[in-house]
Amino acid sequence: MKKSRNSLIAGIIGWTSAVVMFFPIFWMVLTSFKSEIDAVVPSILFEPTLQSYVDVNSRANYFHYALNSLVESVGSTVLALIIGLPAAYACAFYPGKRTKDLLLWMLSTKMMPAVGVLVPMYLLFRDAGLLDTRIGLVILFTLSNLPIVIWMLYSFFKDVPTPILEAGRMDGARFWTQMRYILIPISLPGIASTALLSIILCWNEAFWSLNLSASQSGPLTAFIASFSSPEGLFWAKLSAASTLAVAPILIMGWITQRQLVRGLTFGAVK
Amino acid sequence: MGIFKTSILSFGAMILGSQLAHAETLTIATVNNDDMIVMQKLSAEWEKSSGNKLNWVVLEENVLRQRVTTDIATKGGQFDIVTIGALETPIWGKSGWLNQLDDLGDDYDYADLFPSVKNGLSADGKLYAVPFYAESSFTMYNTDLFEQAGLKMPEQPTWTQIAEFAEKLTDKSKEQYGICLRGKPGWGENMALITLMANVWGGTWFDNNWQPQLTSEPWKKAVNFYVDTMNKYGPPGATANGFNENQALFAAGHCGIWVDATSAAGRLYNKDTSKVVDKVGYAKGPGEVTDVGNGWFWAWALAIPSTSTKTDAAKSFVKWATSKDYVQLVAKTNGVVTSPPGTRKSTYTEEYLKAAPFAEMTQKAILTADPSKPTRDPVPYTGISFVIIPEYQGIGTTTGQAIAGALAGQSSVDDALQSAQDNAVEAMTQAGYIK
Amino acid sequence: MAARSRDVRTGPLLAPAVGVLLFWMIVPLALTLWFSFQRYNLQNPLITGFAGITNYRLLLSNARLWISIFNTLVLVSSVLGITVVAGIIFAVVFDQDFPGRNIARLLVTAPFFIMPTVSALIWKNLLMHPVNGFFSYVSRWLGLPVVDWFVQAPMFSVIMIVAWQWIPFATLILVTAMQSLDREQLEAARMDGAKGFSMFWNITLPHLLRPISVVVMIECIFLLSVFAEILVTTSGGPGLATTNLSYFIYMRALLQWDVGGASAGGVIAIVLANIVAAFLIRTFAKNLERD
After folding, report:
1. Do C18 and A102 touch (CB under 8 A)?
2. Among A180, A245, B423, C291, which residue's beta carbon has the most beta carbons within 10 A?
3. Looking at residue A244, what DSSP letter applies?
4. What DSSP letter does each residue of C154-196 carry, written as one string?
5. Between B27, B40, B245, which is nearest A230 by CB?
6. pTM of the predicted model, to two decimals?
C-alpha cells in the first residue's frame, strides 16, 4: 500500500525530471530536422528535412573529424591505462607514508588553468613537431586525464579483498601475472568504467583540441567551432552540427551505462 | 613480367612526378562568413586548374583570430594562407610576420584596387595582404516602416535625428524596435560602432601624448546617448547582439534602423534569408558634432605567413581568390548582387550598380573612409573604428565589456568609462607609451 | 600494511606515472613562472625584457582580478550545491521502483555526455534566446514578460547551464551508491517506527557521505576551470558579471595577448586552486579514508 504510493511519487518526480533534463537535447535533435525558416518558430509541427545535415556536410567533412575524435580519445585512454594501472596498483597494495600525498599531488596537476599555459605549451609542441598531429593530442589528453584515471583505479583496487592477492603473491606470481590473472579480471568493471569516463572526458575536451590542431588532427570540438556563430539564420544548421558532434558519444554512453554504473558501484562509492 | 611492370610503373611515376613537381597541399585558415563559404566552394576550380590541394580550417571570427595570432606570433608554421583584417595586417607586416604581396604579376591589376583599401593593407608602402572584401559602415532603414510612420531619412542624418525616428518606429508589443545596434562586447563588435559615435561627438581614443581619453566629455555624451537610445528603442538582449545577430533581426523585419557594415546590404538582398529584400533604404553614417570618422574601414584579406614553405602555390591561390576573374565567377554562379564588394573598381560595373541598389552608397562610403584621418582633432594613430597599435585589441575589448555592462544596467556609464580608462592607462603604461 | 611495502619495490611501477606527471607539471609551470616575470606581448615583438614583479603588481592591484576570483567561488559553490542536492534527490527517487525507471535514468544522465561547447550553444540559442528561444515562446504563450536571461540574470544562467551538465554526474555516482545501502537496516528502522524523513536523515544521508565527497572533489577540479560555457554564452559579461578566473586569464592571454600578465594570472590561479584543494582535503579526506 505504502510502497505503491512511494513508487507513484517517485515515478512522477523521476519522469518529470527526466523530461526536464532531457528536453534541451530533444529540442536540439528536433530543430536539426527543421528548415531554417521553421527553426526560429518554436513549433512541434513542421515538415522534416535533412537539408541542414546536407549543408553541414558540404562545408566540413564530418567523418574526418569523427575519426580523429575516436582515435584520439581511445588512444589516450589506452595509454593512460597502461601508465596508470601499475601506479594505482602500487598505491593501493603497497602504500607508504607518502602515498596519500602522492595521490593528491597527482590530482593537483589537473588544476592548472589551460588558458594560462597555452603559449608555453604551443612553443613546446612547435619544437617537438607535434602541432596538428594526432599523436600530439593523444599525449596531451593522456597527461591531462592520467590523474583521474589513477585515482579511480586506486579506489577500485582498494576494494579488492587482500587475501586473494596475498595468495597469489605467495605462489610467486609476479606483478604482471598477478595483474593478468587476478586483479584485472576481478576489477574489470571498475577498469571499464574508468576507461569510459576517460573517453568521455577526452571526447568533450574543447580547449587544447581546438588550439593545437589545424586541418589534420582536429576532432569534433573543432568541427563545431565553425558552426558556432550565427550567419543570418543558422539555428537548424547549428542543431544539425551539434547533433552530429554529440551523437556517437551519447550513444556509446547509453549502451555502456550499465557497465559504467556497475563499475562505479564496485569501487569508489561503496 | 613483374620486373617489367614495376619499371613501367616507376617510369610512369617519374613522369607524373616531374609534372606535378609543384603540386602542394596548402592549409588555409578562414572565417565562417558567407563570402568565405562561397570561396571554399568555388576553390575546387582553382584546385583543378593548378593541381594543388587546399585543407580548410574554417572557424568563428574570435576563435580564428586567436588561433592565427598564436600561430603566427610563435612562428608555429601551421598555416600557408590566413584570413586577417585591416587591424592586424599593418602591424604584422611591420613585424616581418607576413610575406610581401607586391609581386603577383601585372595581370593582377593592382591599379584596379581601391587606393584606400590597398593603403589599409600596407605598411611602409608595402602590401602585406590582398583584399577579399572590404566594407565601410552606413545607415540602413526599413522603408516600409518609415512610410507607415510618415518619416523621411535625410542623406546625412545625425544621431539626434536617428533617435527621434527610432522613438516613432518603436512598438515593442509588435516586436518592432526603432533601432538595432551592436551590443556584444569586443573591439570588433560593439566598440567598432561606439568608436564611430565617439568620433562624431568630437572625441578621440588617445590625445597626442597617448593619454587615453575615455572619460572626456565627448565619450561620456556619446556613450550615454548610446545606452539611453538602446534601452528605450532597442531590442531585448542587445548585449548579446553583434553584427550577425542584428542582421538576423533586421532581415526578419524587427528593426527600423540599423547602423552597420555596408557588406550587410548584399546579404539582406538574399531572398532565402531575408524578409526585407526590397524594403531597405540607405543613408550615410550618422554624424553629430562633426561628420569626421562617421564610417569605418574594414577589410577581410588573405595573407601568407612568413613561416609558410609553399609561398609560390599560396601566392597563386590568393591571387586567384582576389582577382577580377573571381569576382566575375561569383557573379556568374551566385548572382551579380553577391559579388565580394568594396575591393576593386572593376566590380562596380553598370550591371552591378543597377542590380544592387546599395552599391553606389557602399562605394561612396568606402572611398570616403580615410583611416589616416580618423577624427576631427589630430591624433597620433590611424584607423577609424579602432586604433592600429598592437595593444588595441585588449584595450578595446575591455572597454567594450565595461560599456556592455552599462548597457545591461550593471553599472552607470560614468563608472564603466572610468574603469575602462583605468584599464587603458594600465595597458598603455605597461607597453611603454606613457611613462 | 606499511611493513609490506619493503618487500616489493614499487618504484618501477610508479615511475612512469610520476615521471610523466612531473614533466607535465614542472615544464609548463616553470615556463609559466618564467614568462610571468617577463614583458612579453604576443602581438608586439618590440616589448621584451625582464619585468620584475610588474606583472604581479598590476594584476593584484586590478579590481577585475578580485571580482573574477569572487565569481569563480560563487560559480563553483553554487553548482556544487545544486548538483549535490539534485543528485541526492535523484538517488532516492531512482532507488524506488517505478515503470520505465531505467529509461528515465538514461534520460536524466544524458547531459553528462554532451560537450560543454555544444550544451552552451543549445542553451544560448535554442532555449534562452530572448526573441527566438523556447523559453521566450513559453513566456509569451503564458502572457508573462520575456526574460532576457544573459542580461537580467547572467550568473544564474551560467550556473544553470553548468549545473545541468554536472547533475548527471552526481546522480550517476549517488544512484549507484544507493544500491549498496543495507536494506535490512532500513527495514529494521522502519519497524522501530522511523518515518521517511528521519530515516533519510539518519541512515541514507550518512551512507551517501563518502560518495558525496567523491562528487565534490572531482567536480571541484572541473568547475574551477569552467571556460567554454562562459566564452560561448556571455563572454564574461555583461560588465564583469560572469568573468571567472579562467576567463580573466583568457582575456589577458588571448584578447590582450599579454603573455606575461596571463602567466602571472596562471600562477595566481594555481595558488588559488591549491588553497581550495587543501580546504577540500581537510574537509573530505576523512570521509574518503574511512573504510
Report:
1. yes
2. A245
3. H
4. HHHHHHHHHHHHHHHHHHHHHHHHHTTS-HHHHHHHHHTT--H
5. B245
6. 0.85
Q: How far apart are CA B247 and CA C290, in angstroms?
A: 60
- The secondary structure of residue B341, as a DSSP letter, is P
Distance CA A64, CA A86 (A): 34
Nearest Cα to Cα of residue B66 among B74, B308, B389: B74
pLDDT in tens, chain A (270 residues): 456 777 888 889 999 999 999 999 999 999 899 887 777 776 777 888 888 898 888 888 899 999 999 999 999 999 999 998 888 888 887 777 777 777 777 777 777 778 878 888 888 889 999 899 999 999 999 988 898 888 888 877 877 776 666 655 545 556 677 777 777 787 787 788 888 889 998 998 888 888 888 888 889 988 888 787 656 567 888 899 999 999 999 988 888 877 776 666 554 444
**Cβ contacts of B426 on chain C, cutoff 8 Å:** 58, 62
Grid coordinates of A173? 606470481
Residues 6+ apart with CB under 8 A from A33: A46, A48, A49, A50, A52
Distance between C93 CA and the closest CA of chain A, angstroms:
5
Residue C121's alpha-carbon distances to A24, A50, B2, B187, B246, in angstroms, are 11, 21, 59, 22, 18
- Which of C97-119 are b and which e, b meaning 16 or more Cβ less than 10 Å from the residue's Cβ? ebeebeebbebbbbbbbbbbbbb
* Amino acid in position C102: N
B433 to chain A, any CB pair closer than 8 A? The answer is: no
Write out the DSSP string of A35-48. -HHHHTS--S----
Q: Do A229 and B60 touch (CB under 8 A)?
A: yes
Write out residues 83-112 of C within 8 Å (CB-CB) of A.
Answer: 89-90, 92-101, 103-112
By the 8 A CB rule, do A157 and A239 touch?
no
A-facing residues of B in 269-298 (CB < 8 A) are 270, 273-274
